[in-house]
Design a protein that fits this description.
Elements: H1 2-22, H2 31-64
Helix pairs in contact: 1-2
Length: 65
């Protein structure tokens, strides 16, 4: 499970970086730039969720000892 969360975080980071390059900062909520903003936010959420899963697993292991 730990490796899976790292893989998900890595893929989400790649998607986040790719979409950040596609954002037009002059008009970020127009056409393709809007899609890039939404997918960047989604990738950030995926990274956050994967990190939370790792932390919860670690806490679970420590409380069982």
């Amino acid at each position: 499970m730990k490796i899976t969360t790292y893989i998900i975080s890595g893929i989400a980071l790649i998607v986040l970086i790719f979409n950040a390059t596609k954002i037009d900062f002059e008009a970020p909520l127009v056409n393709d730039s809007y899609t890039a903003v939404i997918t960047s936010i989604a990738a950030g959420c995926a990274i956050l969720i994967a990190t939370l899963i790792r932390v919860v697993r670690k806490i679970d292991r420590l409380t069982k000892k």
